[in-house]
Amino acid sequence: MRDSMLDQIPNKHHPRPKGNIRNKSTLRERLHDIVNLLDPSVVAELIPDVKTWARNTAIARNSLAHEGKTPGKPPEELMAIVNSTTAILLFVVLDNLGLSTQKQRKVARDHPNFRAIAQQSQKWLSDPRG
Q1: What's the distance, CA 86 to chain centroid?
Q2: Which of 36, 20, 29, 25 is nearest to 57 (CA)?
Q3: CA–CA gap between residue 61 and residue 47 (Å, rounded)
Q4: Structure pTM?
Q5: Which alpha helices (H) appear in 8-111, and where do they start and end?
Q6: Residue 36 has what DSSP assignment?
Q7: Among residues of the chain, what percentage have pLDDT more than 90?
Q8: Is residue 90 within 8 Å of residue 64, measured between CB atoms?
Q9: Are 110 and 103 in contact (CB under 8 A)?
Q10: 23 — alpha (psi -120 to 50), left (phi > 0) or beta?
């Protein structure tokens, strides 16, 4: 949409409008919005540190989208980002299908794949300062 808008403006004037046209909310804000669709107790089973997860996910996505690489991000952290984000989206689907919060917590806690994702998230997507 931004490119379509810029096509209507002469090239010599692009720097100013290009910098002013952006999504209404940032990726980090949208990630928080997605997490907020779930009960906090379910999220805590999967992602112990939502703030750090959202920040690291947004940084990795933006680096990849704008630079084509993710400098300083080890592959294990990128896998933790992908896996934890996928898990959150799966639980949003389960929630929308009517699975109770209690059952969601049980699945997150007891299923080996989700336990592994929670461990990855704890290791790679938690603020080491606590």
Answers
A1: 9
A2: 29
A3: 18
A4: 0.79
A5: 15-20, 27-35, 40-46, 50-67, 75-96, 101-110
A6: T
A7: 72
A8: no
A9: no
A10: beta
